[in-house]
Amino acid sequence: MATIFFTEPELVVGHGRRVLFVNPEDMQIFKEIELPPDLGLKTQAPSSTIEQGSGSCPAGKEQQLAAGGAKQPEATASGSAATKVEAPISVQNVAYSPDGQLLAVTTSGGQKALLLYRSWPENARLLSSRPLARAASALRFCSDSSSVLVTDKTGDCYQYDCVELEATPRLLLGHLSVVYDILWSEDQQHIITCDRDDKIRVTNYPATFDIHSYCLGHREFVSGLALLTDQHIASASGDKTLRVWNYIQGKELLLHELPAPAVRLLVRQLEPEKVFQAAVLFYGNVDALGLYRLERSPDESWSVTATQLVRAEAGSWSISNFTLTADRIYITGAENERLSLRVYDIATGQRTTSGVPEGWVKMVLDGLGASEEDAPPFVPEDLSVWFKKRFDNVSDYLERKKRRIEEQQQQKCG
Amino acid sequence: MVTTGEQAQDRDPEPDALSPTSAVTGLPQKRFYRQRAHSNPIADHSFDYPARPEDVDWRKLYPSIQPGQQVRFADIGCGYGGFLVTLGEMFPEKLSIGMEIRVKVSDYVVDRIAALRRKSEATGAGAYQNIACLRTNAMKYLPNYFAKGQLEKMFFLYPDPHFKRAKHKWRIINQALLSEYAYVLRKGGLVYTMTDVEDLHKWIVAHMEEHPLYERLTEAEAEADHITPKLYQSSEEGAKVVRNKGDHFLAIFRRL
User: Fold this and answer.
1) Using CB atoms and an 8 Å cut-off, which of residues 129-168 of chain A contact chain B?
2) Which of A63, A335, B14, B194 could bridge across to A317 with cysteines, CB 3.0–4.6 Å?
């Protein structure tokens, strides 16, 4: 996994054990983070108990109730793992808090953790390192930067406090499949999650036991969400559609067919509350990236215009992620199992070097240690497993049943 | 399995043995639909499920459904449908749905309801038009079938206990799922749970009581519910337990 995002004026790229904060316009490196080889995870991973706010359910209660009585909770596993041979730690996801003061990093590999750094006024000082029960799938700060949400592969969503750094994480909600993306409304009233079972769920906050609505209509995994206004979101899915919803009402407002399944969505606001640029990364498509203009009319309806397809030579390398600045698209991927970074022009959709300082790409790759001899091979996640496997366990049964009935009728007639 | 060769010689003696439908009752026989009790509710299966509740063709399930009429009762994991049939008889005005994940078992219920409808039509009564069975994964697809607050009653009778701790996430009652049930249940709606596994009963009660959107009915309230005696009698699994002289554990909860 290579993570990349742009937040004026920094382009942030995470790979292996490093995160680099660079200026895309010149050769300046603002700062860099290198994960320690041992994250020193002492505290226990969160229990699987949803807290309902009353604090009435200590984790121990659940253990007592567990039929069969498992002897030790799995939480100790992360502690003992340090003594075993383990996969190297790598940066999985990085996010800035909205106030720009905090930086959250999730790691994968042998030590799965949520790391919190103070990014301002200090130059990335590690504040806390908290173990994750499982590898994270998405990461999102709340608008007032007081806590951060982490979702995982089993569909659980935990809230980690960013003020009380030692506070036990709270399990806020659960899906039955991977949660691919998570949003938190500006007013912090709703948490919006999307999963592999085609669903977008809108959950009330802080009363997260109460589901406000579902936005239903997608027919495959929902890979990406983006907040448009205080009522509207955009979603992209493996069903080859881009949609706009009123998430408060759970109502679909726009459906746009895409040339291929969408695996990532990024939205930039061009005019407040009105015009947006949506970028969609495709699965198995020569034109690896599509750019769309979403526009809201005064009567609440939305329109979409396809503005650009980016022929990112998909197939010749393995694309993993991308981000946008005002004029350029930065795409990460693997070439010969090495991290690669390519730059494209938004206006033309063509690969470009204009505006990219000479030696800039090399500087970034070197800074991430991607060109080192002993760098571990980089293989982007296989996204084919996101699609549901349709294995048919019905027609065989029905066929046998039909035959049995026919045989019986023959017998009657005979 | 009986081969065709044998069949040719074997003209008569036991026509019933081969027929999935009993010659005596005219109803399908369970032994042709046996299936192991466990199913992984988290794995992919080939379900045809609607994207949204608006997309469900309810007329296919309830041929005489009235415009505006909606399913109000759901028997989750309805097994062979014994209780679903009782529910249909007790509440002729309400549409009840049975949801069952196992292929053969749900097919049995579908065939059983079709047979019951045929028999009833023959006598002119026209009953059992208000019950139907869906093969689906209720843990995943309830919001695909039901709108917010649509259901009045939900039943979880003799659910798979999934004893192993690692499989507790497969339990039909868990904290995350209780929020989904609360979403499809209307305020004041009821959740009926019944099991013969005491540990599971404790688990259910602990999770439901902890969830802010449910409160348990008092014993007196549970006793006063007309459905309560039927819960002890009419599920097949229940009948088996009675023969084994096992204990039943009933708990009813109100959606707040």
Assistant:
1) 154-156
2) A335
B 207-236 near A (Cβ less than 8 A): 210-213
Of 3.10.129.10, 3.40.630.30, 3.40.50.620, 2.130.10.10, the CATH number of A3-55+73-413 is 2.130.10.10
Q: What is the pLDDT of residues A17-54, one digit of tens each?
A: 999 999 999 999 999 999 988 888 865 555 555 544 43
What is the spatial distance between Cα A180 and Cα A170, in angstroms, rounded to a whole number?
A: 19
Measured between beta carbons, the chain A residues lying within 8 angstroms of B206 are 57, 61-62, 65
Q: What is the pLDDT of residues A320-361, one digit of tens each?
A: 999 999 999 999 999 999 999 999 999 999 999 999 999 999
Contacts 24+ apart (CB under 8 A), A148-151: A148/A95, A148/A97, A148/A102, A148/A104, A148/A114, A148/A116, A149/A182, A149/A184, A149/A191, A150/A106, A150/A114, A151/A179, A151/A182, A151/A193
- Which residue in chain A has the smallest CA separation from B42? A176
- Residues with pLDDT less than 70, chain B: 1-20, 36-46, 169, 234-246
Residue at A209: amino acid letter? F
- Domain-embedded: residue B11: no
Q: Distance between alpha carbon A409 and the CA centroid of its chain, in Å?
A: 57
The answer, yes or no, to whether the previous bond of A272 is cis (omega within 30 of 0) is no
Sketch the domain layout of chain A as residue ranges. 3-55+73-413
Closest in B46, B51, B206 to A391, CB measured: B46
Residue B76 · residue B154 · CB < 8 Å:
yes
Residues of chain B neighbouring A411 (CB-CB closer than 8 A): 7, 11, 15, 18
**Mean per-residue pLDDT of chain A:** 88
Write the pLDDT tens digit of every residue in A206-236.
Answer: 999 999 999 999 999 999 999 999 999 999 9
Which residues of B are marked as active site?
160
- Kindly determine whether residue A67 and residue B203, on different chains, have CB atoms separated by under 8 Å: yes
